Amino acid sequence: MTASLTLSPVVEKALAEGRPVVALESTIITHGMPYPQNLETARQVEKELRDNGAEPATIAVLNGTLHVGLTDPQLEQLSQAKGVAKLSRADMAVCMSQGGTGATTVAATMIGAAKAGIEVFATGGIGGVHQGAEMSFDVSADLAELALTPVSVVCAGAKAILDLAKTLEVLETRGVPVIAVGQDAFPAFWSRNSGLRAPLRIDDPADIAAAHMARRALGLPGGQLIANPIPVEAEIPRSEIQPVIAQAMADAKQHGIIGKAVTPYLLQRIFELTKGRSLDANIALVLNNARLAAKIAQEMSKRPE
Ligand code: PSU
Ligand code: MN
């Protein structure tokens, strides 16, 4: 282990004892939700994991050190910090070498989790192929990371701000298993059904854990994308969210928003346009993903090889 990686004492102990640990990202805190709901959600997700028998490990770069497991004061500070970098595979090491602070996206969180020996990670939605990517080439590094790093990522699918059909194509090309849970359809974050069929389906967390282990036994690099639909009572149906997304995307275009700024801008705009309903849905799906991730991590800890 390098000196630039710091495990929190609770996470270190849980890993040493072979107890289930679930990684959590920090970009959702700094760039995905407004304060104070971001802090409340971060705390609630950690509690949900503990209540379900898994130790949470929120990952972030703080003053040049990659932290796996944050203390509550660290979480609180990050949730209110201004101008925090949004780190992915490309810029994580530069931030660390300069002593900087940054939140980890799905890609960077997978890197931190793998370094610490954590194989399950719960989040909201992953990045993917943006609409218009045939012109902009805007494809999230999350997809490449899923092909490289052996972590099973539990999400609620990908947002319809992305081109979901192209996102599934890229994942297939890169050899990433996309596994829907409890239904055949690939979920679309705020909505349960994207209108696309997921390539794979597994309903039992024990079988998801077994598939992860089978990949490892085959010596395949990369992880699994576990697509867990938002609970029915919290969903915003596709017909309702679609025009809101279209409006937010038109606003982004008009304001010349590009690159890393696109996802945070759209999330904020959709929050405004739905008068907070998108955030309520986001919180519900993250908690739901934490519960499933805890079950998968428990199953994995039962079968260490
Ligand atoms: N989905 C969310 N909230 C988020 C993100 C995705 O519901 O905050 C973040 C994740 O950290 C994801 C990142 O890894 O956006 C993708 O950004 P980009 O498209 O710039 O790669
Ligand atoms: Mn991008």
UniProtKB/TrEMBL annotation:
What does this protein need as cofactor? Mn(2+)
What biological-process terms (Gene Ontology) are attached? nucleobase catabolic process
Work out whether the entry's keyword set contains Nuclease: no
Q: How is the cofactor bound?
A: Binds 1 Mn(2+) ion per subunit.
Q: What class of enzyme is it?
A: lyase
Reaction(s) catalysed by this chain, per the record, are: D-ribose 5-phosphate + uracil = psi-UMP + H2O
- What Gene Ontology cellular component terms go with this record? cytoplasm
Could you tell me the EC number(s) of this protein?
A: 4.2.1.70
Positions contributing to Mn(2+) binding: D138
Q: Which family does it belong to?
A: Belongs to the pseudouridine-5'-phosphate glycosidase family.
Q: State what this protein does.
A: Catalyzes the reversible cleavage of pseudouridine 5'-phosphate (PsiMP) to ribose 5-phosphate and uracil. Functions biologically in the cleavage direction, as part of a pseudouridine degradation pathway.
How does the record describe its quaternary structure?
A: Homotrimer.
Q: Which PANTHER family match?
A: CARBOHYDRATE KINASE PFKB DOMAIN-CONTAINING PROTEIN, ZGC:136858
- What protein name applies here? Pseudouridine-5'-phosphate glycosidase
Q: Which organism is it from?
A: Primorskyibacter flagellatus
What is the name of the gene encoding this protein?
psuG
